[in-house]
Amino acid sequence: MDLSPLFIYLGITICLIITLLGFRSFKVLIGEKKSNEFPSWEKHETGFYWRLNRAQINCLDNLPIFASLVISGFLLNIQDSNFINFAWLVIVGRSLQIISHLLGETVWHVNVRFTGYVIQVICFVGMLYILLRLV
User: Fold this and answer.
1) Computed over its alpha carbons, how large is the radius of gyration of the chain?
2) 43 CA to centre of own chain
């Protein structure tokens, strides 16, 4: 097992964070918002910005789980092709979730987003099962 899926997940997360930071910085620099007008506990914008914010938060929510599984697989030198495929499939599910977040809020967008999340959770469970079976 290599760490490539984790590095890609981290890269995607960092790109979302930088984009969000750029959006917020721009709003502050042009005087449209003050720096304290982005409270994390409430919806503070609409449309694309809020969907970007949610996509970034969702990445951060699942990063510890994915990192724990991939690093465990790496440290235990897991060579099971199912484990590796699950790790890559997490990236597919995450990508579906992010793309659907960014493109809109219709029922179809939400259905695709939910499907992407379900794919990730199933993969997490599969990876954990393989780890527990081999430990």
Assistant:
1) 17
2) 19
We report the CATH number of the domain holding residue 21 as 1.20.120.550
Distance CA 59, CA 31 (A): 29
Total count of domains within the chain: 1
Write out the residue range of the structural domain in which residue 53 sits. Answer: 4-134
Distance, CA of 100 to CA of 119 (rounded, Å): 14
| Residue count of the chain | 135
Q: Residue 102 in 3-state DSSP?
A: helix
Question: Residue for token digits 């493109």?
Answer: 103
Distance, CA of 107 to CA of 63 (rounded, Å): 26
Give the pLDDT of the chain (135 residues) as one tens digit per residue.
Answer: 899 999 999 999 999 999 999 998 998 999 988 888 887 767 777 788 889 999 999 999 999 999 999 999 999 999 999 999 999 999 999 999 999 999 999 999 999 999 999 999 999 999 999 999 987
Read off the pTM.
0.90
